[in-house]
Each structure stands twice: as structure tokens, then as C-alpha cells.
Amino acid sequence: MTRAVNLAVGSVVVALAVLALKLAAWWLTGSVALFADALESVVNVAAAGAALVAIRLSAMPADANHPYGHDKAEYFSAVLEGALILVAAFVILHEVWTAWLRPREPDLAPLGLVISMIATALNAAWCSVLFRHGRRLRSPALVADARHLLADVVTSAGVLAGILLALVTGYYWLDPLLAALTAVNILFSGARLVRESVGGLMDEAVPPDQLARIRHTVSCAAEGAIEAHDIRSRQSGRWTFIEFHLVVPGDMRVVEAHEICDRIEAALKAELGDAVITIHVEPEGKAKHSGVLVL
Fold first, then answer.
1. Hey, what CATH topology would domain 208-293 get?
2. Does the pTM exceed 0.70?
């Protein structure tokens, strides 16, 4: 199995362990906020499973029906995860409304709170692992899972603080209030995931800072050419697709122009990693005197 698949399997295992711990903590305390926290972990399990399927699918090589590969499958997983997060948020809000109408004192079960803290610590550790390796592998599914876990860690810490505050002050309405804040935070997290994943499906251009690096690399590596214009880019999973027109002197031999293209491709792949580069060579009469001037 690839590193990404191993991490996805690990996410499923961790999500199941955290769900079991949080359900135990809710059962021991009866806290609505901890119930909301546990419900989000149900989403974590479903999302981790979807990410595993998507990563395995994206690892399939290109074929006749998918000549550009299957990398976009990870974006579908991230969209699904965002949708599940939104559903969980609305279910939590329903439970919050019921508890708000009939607030009650949560049980001060030290073991339940300790179990919840252990689950939060486990989530935080795995979140760090997913962020580090997901960004290195340029996996949208793993990064989406990491962001979801980060939101879970933040809300879990807030829930624990709210329960302790409610018990100390006697203001038991703080328990459903913290659950409501958890739901709002989850809503924002889910909306962000959906927006970013849809952007990948819609072939958004690479970020401005990465485009600037591409332009600078082309300018430095294209010695012998005149300019590069009409640069277009998009991201598909770990792959970056780049295409542009390269203007060369009209009397340049084909072999010389090809050498320049090879040099540019090597420089871009060294800078970006996995990249698919398409260069259209044009004579100097096609110059637009704009875009990237060759240094």
C-alpha cells in the first residue's frame, strides 16, 4: 500500500477509537455538549472511510477513459466530508434546542471527563500527522481530514471547559450553549471544506504565490527564448498542470527549441514536484510583449 493509503487506514482506526471514547464519556456524564462532540466523531468515521476509498481510487494509473488519471477522486471525498459535517451540525443544533428548553445538571463523572480528554489528545496527535504528511503528499483528502480533526480538537476543548464552568457556576444552560457553539464551528468548517473541494473540481488556478514561483522559474530557465505568455495552471490532487506559449527566435532550429523546453520542464518539476507541463513553441512574430520575459 502507498503511504497515503496507510494514512487513510490509520484515520479510520483512530476515528473509531475516538468515537468509542467519546460515546463512553457522554454515557458517563449525560452532557449534551459531549453528545454533540461524539456525534461529530460519527462524521469522522464516515469521512475517514470515504477518504480511504477516494485515495485508493486516485492511486489507480491513467487509462483510456481517464487519460489524466484519477486524482480528482480525492476532491469528491472532501466534498462528501464537508456535506457530512454540515448534516452533523444541524443534528447537534436540534439536540441543543431540546436541551435548552429543559436544561439539567450534567453528572460530574471524573472518569467521563478524563476519557474525553484522552480522545481529544488522540485526535490532536493524529491531526498533526495528517497535516504534515497530507501536505507533503499533496493529498486533498488527507488535508481535509486533518482540518476536520483540528476543528474537532478545538470544539472538544471548548466543550470540556464549558462543562466544568457549568458545574462550578451552576449555570447549566452553559452546556447546551457550548454545544451550539460547537455546531456553529462545525458549520464553518464544513462550508470551507466544500468550497475548497469544489474549487479543485472546477479546475481553479494554483494560488498566486505558486503562480509567481512558476513565472520566475520559467523566466530563469528559458535562456535562448524571448518570452512566455498565456500561462495557465490548475491543480488535480498531487499533480500541477501548467501550459503556456514559448516564443523563440524565428530562425532557431527545432532541436534548440526542444532543449529549452526540456530545461524549463526539468526546472518546473524540481520546483513543484509532480507536474504535467505543456509548452507550445511559437516564432518571434507571435510575441505579445507581455507575460514572462526571459532573463
1. Alpha-Beta Plaits (3.30.70)
2. no
